[in-house]
Amino acid sequence: MKNEGIIPGYHGIMDLDVSNMDPRYIKQAIEQHENDIKIYNAEQAKLKPEHRYENTILRINKQREYVQMKEKEYLDTIEKESLERNKQYNIWKKKFKPIYP
């Protein structure tokens, strides 16, 4: 689904929603949005690399996604092992039915 009326932002700049905006101001708002992105890029270029957005916030988000992926893999492994133990137990219970009902 395409988001009509949404102008994408850039890193630290939010998307611009012009869907409910007065049509006579849309062009000006888009120009201002693009200008803000240019200014943002110029400010980021002045910063030391370790202080730039892509090396701080984006790096942290990538690390968080990696940790979440590893946690999910670990939990899936535990779940599979548990399921396998339950299957083995049920097979064992079928083989050795109790003598007394």
DSSP helix count? Answer: 2
Q: How many extended strands?
A: 2
User: Regions with pLDDT < 50 over 5+ consecutive residues?
Assistant: none
> Domains counted in the coordinates: how many?
1
The rounded distance between the terminal residues' Cα atoms is: 61 Å
- Strand composition percent: under 5%
- Arithmetic mean pLDDT: 89
Radius of gyration: 27 Å
Gist of the model:
With 101 residues, the chain is mainly alpha-helical. Helix content is 66%, strand content 4%.
Describe the protein's architecture and organization.
With 101 residues, this protein is mainly α. It has one domain. The chain has a two-stranded antiparallel ribbon. A hairpin with an 8-residue loop joins strand 1 and strand 2. The radius of gyration is 27 Å and the shape is elongated.
List strands and helices in order, with pairings.
Layout: E1 6-7, E2 16-17, H1 23-46, H2 53-95
Antiparallel strand pairs: 1-2
